[in-house]
Amino acid sequence: MTETKAAQQVAADGQALFDQLISEDSRIEPTDWMPEAYRKTLTRQISQHAHSEIIGMQPEANWITRAPSLKRKAILMAKVQDEAGHGLYLYSAAVTLGTSRDELVLQLLEGRAKYSSIFNYPARTWADIGAIGWLVDGAAICNQVPLCRASYAPYGRAMVRICKEESFHQRQGWEILYELSHGTPEQKQMAQEAINRFYGPALQMFGPPDADSPNSQQSMAWNIKRFSNDELRQRFVDMIVPQAEALGLSFEDPDLKWNEERGHYDYGELDWSEFKSVIKGNGPLNSQRLKRRREAFDNGAWVREAAAAYAKRKAATDHALVV
Ligand SMILES: [Fe+2]
Ligand SMILES: [Fe+2]
């Protein structure tokens, strides 16, 4: 058998096993054969997800020094650290697909990679920290719980821990808003304005409408995605409407009402032109977010150099001990 023929045989056997594992709803491990398109899609999705966790630290980190009490500062600091941890698990999962972490980070720093458009919006008031926790982390949970069963095993495993932590994040956001909405009229007003700002962008976190989301079909066929963008968005709306009622707040959406026939809440058309513009880099804070990330990366260069020098020296010492 020639070398090309042998390679073709390996690919055919690999594809057959891959198809079987997917049809059985089993999992693909990093050492398994997988189609290039599957590898590429996952590398893009997982690394974008990692970038979102890392960039997402910025709007909240800006509020650590201004949080209204020591307890609030401690909680917010822990949440921001959780997000850094999520970024790290996800970069580790992405690296198992064959692209180095250095390259993935470079894609972000050079503006070649996307991250969730929600993080290009500012956190203007303390109530925005509540709205981000409740609505942004809440939307993330709706999106991510089904990803715990994603066919690519390292991604699914990372998502299990991430989802547990996201539940805390959502609760702390809801609790901030609960305190404000049961405080002075000014505090309640601040909470209402925060959710007015985040309602639309949070609903857009599920991505474009199904008819406008050409890659979703393939991701569903590969058992990466389990529900469509619109299904997940609907699930989220159905969850947050009663929660908003419990807060004594409401959403600024005249079309938002219970539909008896469908057994779901109807909601208004979202501003997709704004969504596309933010994705293209024209959101309120796109350039500032990337600038900060580049500065943080440059400021951390000495830490990376010191860690690499230490690892090298330790490896040499360990080797000398073994010999
Ligand atoms: Fe997170
Ligand atoms: Fe979170």
Please describe what this structure looks like.
Pfam families: PaaA_PaaC (PF05138). This is 1,2-phenylacetyl-CoA epoxidase subunit A. InterPro entries: Aromatic_CoA_ox/epox, Ferritin-like, Ferritin-like_SF, PaaA, PaaA_PaaC. It comes from Corynebacterium gottingense. The chain is 68% helix and 2% strand. It is built from 13 helices and 2 strands. It has helices at residues 3-23, 36-55, 57-61, 70-95, 101-109, 126-144, 153-181, 185-204, 216-221, 229-247, 272-282, 286-299, 301-322; strands spanning 257-259, 264-266. The protein has a two-stranded antiparallel ribbon. α6 packs antiparallel against α7. The protein is globular and about 75 Å long.
Q: List unreliable stretches of 5+ residues.
A: none
Strand fraction? under 5%
Mean pLDDT: 95
- Rg is 22 Å
Helices and strands, in order, run as HHHHHHHHHHEEHHH
Helical percent range?
Answer: 55-70%
Helical segment tally? 13
Number of strands: 2
**Biggest sheet statistics:** 2 strands, antiparallel
What would you call the structural class?
A: mainly alpha
Cofactors and ligands: fe (ii) ion
Molecular shape? globular
Strand order of the largest sheet: 1-2
Distance between the termini: 44 Å
Top keywords for this entry?
single chain, 323 residues, mainly alpha, two-stranded antiparallel ribbon, binds fe (ii) ion, 1,2-phenylacetyl-CoA epoxidase subunit A, PaaA, PaaA_PaaC, Ferritin-like_SF
